[in-house]
Amino acid sequence: MKIDFATDLNGYHDGRKFRMLLESYVHSNSTDPLVLSLVESLQQQVNDFLNRPEFKQFHNADGTEPEISTKPPAKNSNPLTQLAAFLNSMTGPSRREMILSKQRQELIERAEHAEASAFEALAETAEIGRERDEILQKMKQLEQEISKHSQKSSD
To answer: Domain locations in the chain?
Structure first.
């Protein structure tokens, strides 16, 4: 597997974030050797990317990389909002959020099913239209043959 990042500041930050994600997976005590091998390969690719000469300007004076803040920027300085966000991040999604997520997934599945049904109905409609056109053409041919036979019999 090969990964590519843009060779600009955004790509540099994406690479660092991806490396952090890979490191967190390594520290999660996974024992699957195939997955660990893949993760190590990806880590090497990311490290090679981040150590490219064009990114030296983003390093600190001592050659180390600056720290990445893993906290999202505070949108509201209200301490209660920050406390609620912290508790939510610690406990995970609430029961209501889980129910809403499940409902959303069910709605998406229903919408996908409706879309597939609509395309099937459209295809059937087109097929029926072609069959109707063929039958109408055959009817015209038969009417022409009948009219020819009736003209011959009247002569």
So the answer is: 1-70, 94-155
